[in-house]
Amino acid sequence: MTQETGGFAAFNLNPNILAAVIATGYEEPSAIQQQSIPIIMAGHDMIGQAQTGTGKTAAFALPILHRIDPAKREPQALILAPTRELALQVATAFETYAKQMPGVTVVAVYGGAPMGPQLKAIRNGAQIVVATPGRLCDHLRRDEKVLSTVNHLVLDEADEMLKLGFMDDLEVIFKALPPTRQTVLFSATLPQSIRAIAERHLRDPQHVKIQTKTQTVTAIEQAHLLVHADQKTSAVLSLLEVEDFDALIMFVRTKQATLDLASALEAKGYKAAALNGDIAQNQRERVIESLKDGRLDIVVATDVAARGLDVPRITHVFNVDMPYDPESYVHRIGRTGRAGREGRALLLVTPRERRMLQVIERVTGQKVAEVRLPDAQAVLDARIKKLTNSLSPLVADAESTHGELLDRLTADIGCTPRALAAALLRKATNAQALTLAAIEKERPLVPNNAPRGDRPERTGDRPDRGDRERRAPVPLAEGRARCRTALGARDGIAAKNLLGAILNEGGLAREAIGRIQVRDSFSLVELPEDGLERLLTKLKDTRVAGKQLKLRRYRED
User: Where does the record place the region Disordered (predicted)?
Assistant: First the structure.
């Protein structure tokens, strides 16, 4: 076993799955993974009692992928989740772990999105189906044989499914599955209703129970910032303006992200470097030494690359990408605040990651306060403070060492000492904006201060009629266009319906769609400006809640 594979190699997983696990940054299996993976790999039914955030998705995803046959183009595993958000999260996890398994396909099946493409993906041979019970029953009414080849069933957050009233749907799904299937049930609690399901539908299940330990990180000041995924770099640059740091480590998920962010920081004059799994050991050592002695101030790293990194200078940790679990979060921010020193940890949270933030708060037993992007005045004050600090030590003997030169230059140029000082300041600050007006112009358009109701992930909320009907649209982010549909709240439309339809029919990545604002008689959606007309043509026949979407560019005259 090599050092890089850690404890996961002991499970004898398919090498392609193991390679994908390493790439995600997991180092050691969590308690639920340690106990569950061997049981599921051996084909036993299982009841797992564990909270969200303990790593349970990988606990069932890895062994199920190990048992999937990529050559068989048919559904082999069904994972049931209580909500659309969790279904998407689980499907994304499966796709991540199956990245190096050619031929393995994952489909997410949930309400609020067209049924046609979902059923087509299943019939085309997606081996992994992640679904909400209600929408899956809709598919079974169209094709009762759609699950006939499934031999692995997982009920994720079973107690939540029962709270949401899915008991009858679950019974329909159980009947549609082969009786010889393997069944795995995960639940935070085990009320009598869950035990009854287990008795009826599981065969001699093995039990795994994990007690979540509260992990304290009291020595570190923690905060989070809500930001859209495509605006993280802008947010990081804004935060760096006002954070008083000595050395800083930034965590991202991918090797490419380390290179991209380090390059953006260098372009702004920061002494930054990337640290990822592709960097040779001798280079890694040079980077760490440079961080220790002050030649570098910022390192952008993946979890694996930062393993064992202990630099006393580190005063700040930026979680630019959300960690995969609370344990990773605690491990990351522990890079600062050591040996009684003060430390500060900032976490960037995209709207869809709010759930994981709540899990982190529960596991650590601490509230992670929300902060806002610094305003122009805060940036101006910070820039002037840095300038003051850099010039103050030079003033004491400057007149005795450079006074005569100053007299000569003012005479030769024919200007006042004040004019010459101003010219030298301009040169020293490299034309950096040092007025409120100039800073306002250069500030990134990160919608951090937008009302929560304007953010697309509040999918289940209805707008407050009246106020929102009259409210003016918020400013557009660069590269986006606002589009309008005549469908609104009175048509029974929620943001999740619009989001699902556009994602499925338009073929866009989630990050490409900006704010979705549902008003009483219409809705506004932010879409990429690049290729907009082609996209609108593609969405021309799309229907939402049985009505035509008819999206058009919104002209704000």
Answer: 442-474
